Amino acid sequence: MSLAALKWAVPGVLALLLLAAGATWKAQDWRYGKQLAEQSGLYQTDLTTISNAAAAHARTALEKQLTAEKARDDIDVKATKEKAHDLAENERLRRAADDSARRLRIAGSCHADSGYVPDPARAPGVDDGGAIELSATAGRTVFDIRAGIIVDQTALRALQAYVRDVCSVQLRGYP
Fold first, then answer.
1. How many separate domains does the chain show?
2. What is residue 127's DSSP assignment?
3. Which of 38, 74, 113, 157 has the fewest C-beta atoms lying within 10 Å of its C-beta?
4. Which GO terms describe its biological process (predicted)?
5. Are 98 and 134 a contacting pair, CB within 8 Å?
């Protein structure tokens, strides 16, 4: 091979190599572009699925929360009404006792084996009665204690209803 032919052959071979490399590059680009487009589509599908599941879960959680809040509010209204009614009844009884329209008495009985039972051979007396009448101060104290009991029992019933109707509803469906 002559030097002149070699001068033309080397650039020709280089041109062919560059052309082959460019064609290969372009073919790979098309193939990878197609794969990337498929992966992008799958990625978007996955994102949509995840987004829809999250939205459904959020809706469910919101519905449960609203249901629990309504149940809590209903319990609060009911407990408040019951407490107000019971306290009003206690106050009515207190006023009746203060006005001497009623007396506060505590019923009691003594069993024969207690040692406090009067002798059957003795005539019955005033101290053999079955009730004890309290003084006005002691009566007010009893009504104060009763008012505290009413408040505590109402709160306890409300808390039990809250646990039964609100907390247990919120926990249903969770692992």
1. 1
2. G
3. 113
4. viral release from host cell by cytolysis
5. no
Terminal Cα-to-Cα distance of the chain (whole angstroms): 84
pTM above 0.90, yes or no: no
Does residue 124 belong to any structural domain of this protein?
Answer: no
Mean pLDDT of 13-39: 90
Q: For 53-65, what is the mean pLDDT? A: 93
Q: What is the pLDDT of residue 97?
A: 83
Q: Is 154 exposed, middle or buried (0-12, 13-18, 19+ CB in 10 A)?
A: buried
* pLDDT score of 137 more than 50: yes
Pick from 138, 130, 127, 148: which is nearest to 104 by CA? 138
Please check whether residue 105 lies inside any domain of the structure: no
In a domain, 123, yes or no: no
